[in-house]
Amino acid sequence: AVNEDTDVFTLVAHGFTNGQKVIYDPNGNIPIKGLDDEQQYYINLISEDEFKLTFDDSLEFGVNIISPSQM
User: Fold this and answer.
1) 70 or 20, which is more confident?
2) pTM to 2 decimals?
């Protein structure tokens, strides 16, 4: 799940590491607004169950998730 107000993703025991590079692919699911298909992002680790995404490995430029109500 993703909290659109805080841009925090919650995925129990996700296993990501801080600064890990990931590529977003909705894989046939409803796309998350604010993320681009096949875009490279970096994990900004909050806890073993929570993280944010950033645009570069400095982890400073966070991704803003757009809620359907903001469209």
Assistant:
1) 20
2) 0.82
